[in-house]
Amino acid sequence: MMIYQGSSDRLEKGKIDWMTISFYFLFVLLGWLNIYAASFDLENATGLFDLSGRAGSQLVWIGSSLLLAFALLKIDVRFYETYAFLFYLIGIALLLITLVVAKEINGSRSWLIIGPVRLQPAEFMKFLIALSLAKVFNAYGFRLMERRNLILVSAIILLPVLLVIAQSETGTALVYLSLILVLYREGLPGGFLFMGIAAIIYFVLGIKFSDTNVGIISLGEFITLLLIVIFSASMIRNYLKVLRPFLMMLLLTAVTFLAAYILTLFGISIDWGITALAAFSLSALYLIFLFFRYRQRSYLYVLLFMIGSFLFLESVEYVFNDVLQPHQQMRIKVTLGMEQDLSGAGYHVGQSKIAIGSGGLTGKGFLNGTQTKLKYVPEQDTDFIFCTIGEEHGFIGSAIILMLFMVFILRLLHVAERQTSVFGRVYGYSVTSIFLFHLVINVGMVIGIMPVIGIPLPFFSYGGSSLWGFTILLFILLRIDKSRNRN
Amino acid sequence: MNSRNTLANRKKVIAVAAVIIALIYLVQLFHLQLLSPEYREYADSNAFLRRTLYPARGAIYDRDGNMLVYNRPTYDVMMVVREMDQFDTLDFCRTLNIDIEQFKQLDADMRDRRRNPGYSSYTPQLFLSQLNVKEYGLLQEKLYKFPGIYIQSRTERQYNYSGMGLILGYVAEVDKNRMAADPYYVRGDYVGKSGIELSHEEDLRGVKGVEVLLRDAHGRVQGRYEEGRHDKAPLSGSDLTLSIDVDLQAYGEQLMHNKVGSIVMIEPKTGEILCMVSAPTYDPAMLTGKEFGANYLSLENNPYKPLINRAIAGTYPPGSTFKPAQGLVFLQEDIITQESRYSCFGGYPPLGGRPACHGHASPLAIQYALATSCNSFFCYGLNGMLSNRSKYSSIGEAFDIWKDHMVKMGFGYPLGVDLPSEKRGFIPNSKFYSNVFKTERWNAHNIISIAIGQGEILATPLQIANLGALIANRGYFYTPHVVKEIKGRELDEAYTTRHESGINKAHFELTVAGMADAVTVGTCRGINLEPFFEVCGKTGTAENPHGDDHSLFMGFAPKDDPQVAIAVVVENGRFGASNAVPIARLMMQQYLQGEIPESDRWLEQSVINREILPYVYTRNLPTRQNETSNQEVE
User: Which CATH number fits domain B74-155: 3.30.200, 3.30.530, 3.30.470, 3.30.1390?
Assistant: First the structure.
């Protein structure tokens, strides 16, 4: 294998994006200090630089990451593009090997142990998928919405997803799926993304309000049915740019409920669930009418969306109760605030909220956090590291970190968008999506908004594989960005 | 080109979505960290183990400095289940002298979360309590063999004398009500439950200290919080010195053996209670240690109610011991003078000889009436007062003035002794009778029995003794009390303030003369201790439909420089002279002469050997209520 380096670099006038690098150094440094604080043991405290402690070994990982970063910046940018598929295949092979060889650690088979080093190939797969996607999109005249291309792109993402799910690393699988944001940027219709979001909303409403009944249906179904009507009406307005059908559908629903209400005044008892179903059906019939009247396929699509939404809604409870495992059901219920369960599934989140909440405005000070020191928060130096920040540095500290991360991600977005090549842009968006997803899920989980999905907070969580993975991800982008004016 | 631009716009969509999520997270952080103070409390209760440091409870001494109550260490066996590997259960059982079944039972009790809500396998849990020093020694020696076993020392009340359980009271684990009323207490604290332990709880208990420790998620202690900067040392409880003379008290309890009743002796000059015997009583050591539960139950089930301090919670018709108080009121109100004489023909003539009286010279004046305990004289007096329409506008006014005098002499309300559950006795007012007779138009003859301390009148032995002190002082008294000194602070003002009766001293001198005559020539010659000192006294024989009359005596000595006032009540002891007087005689000799003279040894033996156990207690009936309500007019 040939490695390009040196000569071409000097010819390029491109500058490295020092802003992003500054963020990188800042995050890694703060991460190191917080790992020290989170793993600080009251009885036998180890020093910041003591290699037997967590902070010490994180320092080793940081050192090696810096070397890695330096090396990545020295490699010619074409190298990544040329060998993207090859690396991807090697990555898939590693995932397969891991699946076969790995011993179970904490319920997952994702660790590859080579001598003293333990690696998680799934972490490195992130940048390999990103590179492959970039290469695919970079093909001349590539159009995402062609069937062949859609299948190829889906396969590139879904193959590793399936493999890591087999390793019981659901969180990482979701990270790969976050690359759908890249597809969105590259032309996937917004409707797909909207449908995804709508599905999440239906799911949350359907589960959260499944215990109260409105007539023959649950409150969740009732609200969702009305929501589907509103969504459908809005879609007509959005895609067909006509106002009348939009208003008509809303009016139909309102009239149905008004009629039902008037009937109750005459002493006739009304099932509000049936009323909602009737309003929903009337809207659907109206769509069919519109389709036959104007012969526009968009009406049919909206109708399909309505029916699809309805079927999805009806399957939610079945999926939740019969497909999801009890511990997953519990995690979701805890997140939705339906269960407390401080000793079981809610323990992590409960203790994590206590730790953060006890920080107050300014926090308890560096190394003074009691909840994290005394091991009330599980995984306190890995997935739940944000707790330590919240407890020791309070609202000010955690808000600053959150905002810094946000600025970092906006910067990545800016860097991604300014790429001159499709390869660079797709890779840039992949990096942005992955960091954004990690941030949103990790912090959301720690503050009790998202369900517990064990993925690390980039640069802060303890762990060599993840730090290396994120470093590679970021510095390849910086390398690409540096030579964006190449052509 | 157009589509390129729309796609580039999607950057903004993503950016806006990201910023919105970040804002939502900021709001949640704001909510958690600034608007939810409860998380801080959760965190503190998570992490801080506030280990209480218990102060030593104050000791109690008698008036001569004899130690009555002190603390003895006792040892609890604590178990940390997680640390118990390679545990030799058999050897452990042998060391503690329990069998394997008991071990299993204790183990199950410890793990039962209903009995022991704070159970954790990581922290020391109480396995067996109250080892004695010997058992402790055996276990301590072998402790290295038993990983996970710890010994925790506590203290337990210990008593040098077997008497006065009712005065000292006992300590036991605090109950829910007390905890709710006073945040000082937490589950498992020991608190005074009766007697001085209860009334002086706040002096005796001291102030708890605290040690703030850090506790990890498993409940294991990880060290002191900030090097103990938040710790507080405990403050020991104050020692108390009682006014009780322990020898006198023990002697009184001996005399009251196999009898039901009470002896109260007060030093008139100070109001200090020298002895307060309530019979039957119990050994305070019974209500401490492992046998507490069983002993308490047996005391509670004892028909003679040994848990009631009859000296302050027993109420009796004072009978003739009330007559000096009556005389004082009549003299003060000018109803009679020193010279007023009334005739008595073996009974009160206006009511056809009821209440009956006994043989003595007639007509007679107050001094002689007191000496002979003439019923008729005091009936005339009461009638004279209540029927006096030139002085009082109505019988109601007259009666309430009479009542006010009685209250000023310490009757009708709790005196305020420093012991819990003191009863008030009963002195009716005019409204009471208007209600009873359902008319304002009643007269002295309707209520004549109160003239002789019967009828509705009820008094505690302490109130009767206090009357003795009041007469001894010729007109004032100090609130009787059992605690003489509290280390570290002054006695409450309530016990150092003179209470004036508002009655002229001359009237008291006359009363004293009458009571002195009673001892020398009258009804209580049995207590005549001349030539050693002059005693003043008044017997009482309170009628009691449930059985024999109660035998009472009230008096003081010496006449001119009173050292001691006394009241004796022997339930069903018949005439005052038959039981109360000899007991009072022996008590006075014991206290004033320091010993019982050879000539009175036979009396001492005879009193000790008497057994007077009222039938009313062993009747299969709710007893106490019946007893008091039936002590009304015959």
Answer: 3.30.1390
